[in-house]
Each structure stands twice: as C-alpha cells, then as structure tokens.
Give the backbone structure.
Amino acid sequence: MSWGVYPEYCPTENLNTDNFRDMLRTCCEITLRKGLVSDDKDLIVVTAGFPFGTPGAANIIRVIPAAGPSYWDETL
C-alpha cells in the first residue's frame, strides 16, 4: 500500500501551525521542489495530524491541486 508514496517531514519552525492553508501551501512547494508534480492539475494527497506536532495524530487527509492556494476551494 505504499507504492507512489513519498513521505516528507515538514519542520514547523518557520510555519504558522495554526493556519492549515499555510501548511497545505508548504506541501505544494515541497512537491514542486522535489519534482513530484509537473502540472498545476496534478493532485497531491496530504495526510497530517491535528493539532500539528502531536505524535500519532494522523487524522486529516486532503487531496489538493498542485497549483496552490489561488486554485483551491475556500473550504480547505
């Protein structure tokens, strides 16, 4: 069940961990930097734990376009 999975740890030192959209934007930046997406329409599956920084709390999953926040629905 892990084919095509590229885990990445997002350090929180320079992030506003109270802003979920900021965390998703960071995910888009990481996938672009690593060459994992090549088109704005590519989809990224993000799993996270909330509140952020809580070990073992993987309770969020989002499928988002790689285009970033300007392309996202306001409900994210």
In short: The chain has a mean pLDDT of 81. The longest helix spans residues 20-33. DSSP finds one helix and two strands in the chain.
